Amino acid sequence: xxxxxxxxxxxxxxxxxxxxxxxxxxxxxxxxxxxxxxxxxxxxxxxxxxxxxxxxxxxxxxxxxxxxxxxxxxxxxxxxxxxxxxxxxxxxxxxxxxxxxxxxxxxxxxxxxxxxxxxxxxxxxxxxxxxxxxxxxxxxxxxxxxxxxxxxxxxxxxxxxxxxxxxxxxxxxxxxxxxxxxxxxxxxxxxxxxxxxxxxxxxxxxxxxxxxxxxxxxxxxxxxxxxxxxxxxxxxxxxxxxxxxxxxxxxxxxxxxxxxxxxxxxxxxxxxxxxxxxxxxxxxxxxxxxxxxxxxxxxxxxxxxxxxxxxxxxxxxxxxxxxxxxxxxxxxxxxxxxxxxxxxxxxxxxxxxxxxxxxxxxxxxxxxxxxxxxxxxxxxxxxxxxxxxxxxxxxxxxxxxxxxxxxxxxxxxxxxxxxxxxxxxxxxxxxx
Amino acid sequence: xxxxxxxxxxxxxxxxxxxxxxxxxxxxxxxxxxxxxxxxxxxxxxxxxxxxxxxxxxxxxxxxxxxxxxxxxxxxxxxxxxxxxxxxxxxxxxxxxxxxxxxxxxxxxxxxxxxxxxxxxxxxxxxxxxxxxxxxxxxxxxxxxxxxxxxxxxxxxxxxxxxxxxxxxxxxxxxxxxxxxxxxxxxxxxxxxxxxxxxxxxxxxxxxxxxxxxxxxxxxxxxxxxxxxxxxxxxxxxxxxxxxxxxxxxxxxxxxxxxxxxxxxxxxxxxxxxxxxxxxxxxxxxxxxxxxxxxxxxxxxxxxxxxxxxxxxxxxxxxxxxxxxxxxxxxxxxxxxxxxxxxxxxxxxxxxxxxxxxxxxxxxxxxxxxxxxxxxxxxxxxxxxxxxxxxxxxxxxxxxxxxxxxxxxxxx
Lengths: 432, 412
Description:
The structure holds two protein chains of two kinds. Chain A is of the alpha/beta class. In chain A, helix 2 crosses helix 8. Chain A is built from 18 helices and 14 strands. Helices cover 46% and strands 14% of the residues of chain A. Chain B folds into three domains: 118 residues, Rossmann fold; 112 residues, 3-Layer(aba) Sandwich (Rossmann fold); 149 residues, Nitrogenase molybdenum iron protein domain (Rossmann fold, 3-Layer(aba) Sandwich). Helix content of chain B is 46%, strand content 16%. Chain B has 16 helices and 16 strands. In chain B, helix 8 links the parallel strand 7 and strand 8. The longest helix of chain B has 23 residues. Chains A and B meet through helix 2, helix 3, strand 3, helix 5 and helix 6 of A and strand 1, helix 2, strand 4, helix 3 and helix 4 of B. Strand 3 of chain A pairs antiparallel with strand 1 of chain B.
């Protein structure tokens, strides 16, 4: 594979207006993005007394069960990931008959409080009306039954599956009297109670309600409208938060995993204003410490080049932050593109115009490294393979369970470590 | 099937994938949504198959599905050909392309002129049946499309047909067969279709002295190779000491060669040692629980292990096959295949004080009075790593008898 050809096929950030214009690095990809079915699985995993009923081929249902089978949150091998396996007959005549029979068995054996009916590509292609089937089953059995559509050919990756599953939970909610608690919506990884943000809420006497999808129950979802504020920690939680605001008047704050300390501090102010509480003193202290870390990092990171793969932090906010620190993006892999005029996108374009391509295609990327020759790679890759090419990996997963200014401190520290290691690699290669 | 609580039986498409991915110098290109490809990687990893640089997907957009646009596939074929220079590209359908009726054979046909690689389409979308259908098609296709006798006769060589990455401990079993064949007849393995083969080996496999067929799904391939190259085949699996002796005798008869005395002596010695277990069986005839075995797995494995159990004077009162038996020639009426998971679970849950030779899920479902050992797929708490711990042959029987001994220690 010729790296130069691959690079010549890519577009620059300044050339593209929407994600549809961003091309794959190659037409044959590996491993490719995850599908929304997996996203739905990740979301249902966190809703303790609910069941995921996948309607699909042997293959889709097999892989989903296989992924949950060693997962304690799903209940392991006897867990609450079940399926209705479709064959040629069902594809021709529809899945209703089989779904009805399976549902009866499910109710007899599991007696759940809520069931997510998760469709797959084939169900959507044949046009089975699973929404109506869910309505009929809900009427018959008197429990919450939510359809979730997960056809992958309409989406870029698995995140719409998480988004649509948590949005479907709106149908379980009931109007409640409001108390001094918050809901956390959209956390995909980690435990909210280990975050800095949680610590600050505790200091202010704010308790937690629903944590969707990072760990909640059907009862907590039903009572979620009783929260004073919804904290949305990832944009996948926005549709639900917006529906709750409209239906129950619950305000929300988008407190995503950001890294720029000014932005994080601003969000703390916004959140505590909604909570009608002062910002805790510790936030001020952390903010000053984070600002100082950023100032000191500049001289260590100036001129460092990188390829951005996939990290737990908001893609364009992170890239804009690194540009502000004097780093240079050579290529950004993304499955989402902010609109023209977005401040982060503009901050990058004001200094550089990196290549853009879609994520999750590491096979041809190997050839691009030799052409672009970055110092760093941010994302999931084989560290040893990268080092052989003089590239150091930046481990972003350490920030997965974090929220708040702790992200800045950990992120900057890791960038410095990786940049120092990258310089050393270059020195060693020169010496050889 | 209605409700599926555990793992469904893998489909024809899954078997086609895990079989073709083991062919070296070829690549597999899936035409379908990318999520399936990413999802399958962990399963293939558990089978000991690395898809790095051999498995690719095109992904599909809504436009491709609605309009039937195959340009994405065409570009991927050309790109793989130019970038990786594989000798063969297996182009495999997905559930979506099967439902919308994409003509993969047609695409491969008109694209063939534009690439150096040989294009072979497999239109299995997962609706033709279970994995045995896929295995049968994959073995047959490999034999028909890629076999040859380029290197001329290979008198000291044998091929294995019907090995599958989905068979637990298959690489260890091939190692055991290699040892048996080498010591008994001085023959060495040329290629093992479905686990360990290359295009070059396939192209010369027609010269081998004999084909060893380990499962019924490989019989059409064996018959084709016999017709085409005159290679005789022996169908059977060496389980148990007695079964291994019979298997070696059958291969020897086909080769018109006696089995090496050293191997026969070893088998005789082992059988004498195992006589203790037959004595135990007779002692338990009047006890509350007589020795009984339940076996869950592929048909040919069940046949071999059931014979081994009968040699130990065990009753074999539950023989369960997760796959369809409709393509098995004269199937044993004692082997059952349930069409619903519930029936299978009920049968397994009813077992008491049995020796259970089965897969991880079945072993999990059985009650605690039973004594189990993992011998088949699917795997949950086991992975395919070892190449030296067989279930077949002499060493395999040694291992299984250790479980039999453990069984007697808890049998009341």
